[in-house]
Amino acid sequence: MISGKQATGPGAGGRPALWSDDEISALNTLWNRGKSAADIAKILGRSEDSVSVKASRLLLSRKRKTEGKLIPCICCTRQFVSEGKHNRMCDPCREGGDGDLDYVVQFGGVR
Ligand SMILES: [Zn+2]
């Protein structure tokens, strides 16, 4: 038999319904226009809590994506956060850091 389906679906027991893609993109647009959570809640017909929780999650995941990727430096092989494909050297190396060995040793102790 199929069980475990009670009280977890949308609309059950006062749980907020899932956000649809349309609602998420509307939330994104409104939020970027500087609307407050209360305004967006009114427009989308949701609770203010629900809107602010969803908005903060969206902002968090967006931030993580734009923060770049951790890759090894082509010069000293130390891991650093790259801003993009053009960015394959860590800051000390890009600044011509010949005397930066101490720095490399400190941060290279990961492996
Ligand atoms: Zn480097």
Lateral arrangement of strands in the main beta sheet:
1-2
Tell me the number of structural domains.
2
Structural class by helix and strand composition: mainly alpha
* Cα Rg: 23 Å
The biggest beta sheet is recorded as: 2 strands, antiparallel
CATH fold node name of the largest domain: Arc Repressor Mutant, subunit A
Terminal CA distance reads: 50 Å
User: Could you say which small molecules are bound to this protein?
Assistant: zinc ion
Fraction of residues in helix: 40-55%
Order of helices and strands: HHHEEHH
CATH architecture descriptor text of the largest domain = Orthogonal Bundle
Brief description of this entry?
With 111 residues, the protein is mainly alpha-helical.
What do you see in this structure?
This protein is mainly alpha-helical and 111 residues long. It folds into two domains: 16-66, Arc Repressor Mutant, subunit A (Orthogonal Bundle); 69-107, no CATH class. The protein is 45% helix and 7% strand. The chain has five helices and two strands, in the order αααββαα. The chain has helices at 21-32, 37-44, 48-66, 91-94, 101-107; strands at residues 69-72, 79-82. The protein has a two-stranded antiparallel ribbon. Strand 1 and strand 2 form a beta hairpin. Helix 1 (21-32) crosses helix 3 (48-66) and helix 2 packs across helix 3. The radius of gyration is 23 Å and the shape is rod-shaped. The protein starts with 20 loop residues before the first helix and ends with a helix. Residues 4-13 have low confidence and may be disordered. It binds zinc ion. The site of zinc ion (ZN) has 8 residues, from helix 4.
